[in-house]
Amino acid sequence: xxxxxxETIEAHRRDVRDAILECTSALVxxxxxxxxxxxxxxxxxxxGRATLYKYFPDIETILLAWHExxxxxxxxxxxxxxxxxxxxxxxxxxxxxxxxxxxxxSRGHGDSAVRAFLHRDEQVAQAHRRLHDMIGDLLAEGAxxxxxRDDVPADELATYCLHAVxxxxxxxxxxxxxxxxxxxxxxxxxxxxxx
Amino acid sequence: xxxxxxETIEAHRRDVRDAILECTSALVxxxxxxxxxxxxxxxxxxxGRATLYKYFPDIETILLAWHExxxxxxxxxxxxxxxxxxxxxxxxxxxxxxxxxxxxxSRGHGDSAVRAFLHRDEQVAQAHRRLHDMIGDLLAEGAxxxxxRDDVPADELATYCLHAVxxxxxxxxxxxxxxxxxxxxxxxxxxxxxx
Lengths: 195, 195
Prior knowledge:
The structure is a homodimer.
Chain A lengths: L4 H27 L6 H8 L3 H7 L3 H24 L5 H19 L5 H7 L3 H24 L8 H12 L8 H14 L8
């Protein structure tokens, strides 16, 4: 049975929107935010310029929409990783590894100007707070069960984790990323004896 | 005995230059990079516009000069802290605390656009590499003496330290900054037994 007309239209609009987002992100990564034009995007996406403007008024808006979709996808993935079975320590480790690899990937997207522009977005700040809370909750859970230190508030430990793990973007190999997460996890241990 | 004429001139030029740097940094912190004018800077520094242009062609150049001077001062301070007596562990801890407080202070200077602009500067990137090496050397020294873990290259541990300590900018209090450095130092310990 063919899909109802309305559904078909919506699926089509979603496909066009996705194509616009993908083409823009690829063009900006290659040429930089300042040198990409709406005409190039329309051409790459295989649509007319007039059609493109029915979807988005300018490149900045497209780029923000693309980035918000990326961030939402990453956050869903991290929540999924967190919700696996296991104790807080193992789950936190998996979340940190997953986030480390996301950070590494994201560094490929455009130069620092593009990143600064994208990270001024309020939805991105919200996503960052949700990730902070996700990690803070695991840390509080682990502190109660004795897996993590309880001499430092979980909220501060979450700041430590998120900043430390962002170092993954500078590391030379995947093995190094795993070592980084091991070091971060060591920092969360209960300490006995002199440091 | 009065100073020779040449020295007096040079001291005067240095004073004027310093005054320009200070005024610009204060104006930009208050009003943002985009809304400060060369006339405002000249007025605040108590010099004529023509004189200002003999020193600097535009605000960006002034801001970079100010920032490079700040960064050089910070780096000297950190090297001084590193060179105190003591074993690698204690010296690294002092360097990290000092750097954490510098990071916290610097967050007050302007918005993210100003920060992004300043951090594109090559001299700043160089200073960052020098700091990375300074910390890497302490870590290598401590690994040899048994103070730090040796299962992770010192260079990667330096990346961990610098990223983790940048979290200081988000923390609510000086006590929290000291706790952060304690956690970072725990991460550097040799690990025995399961994590």
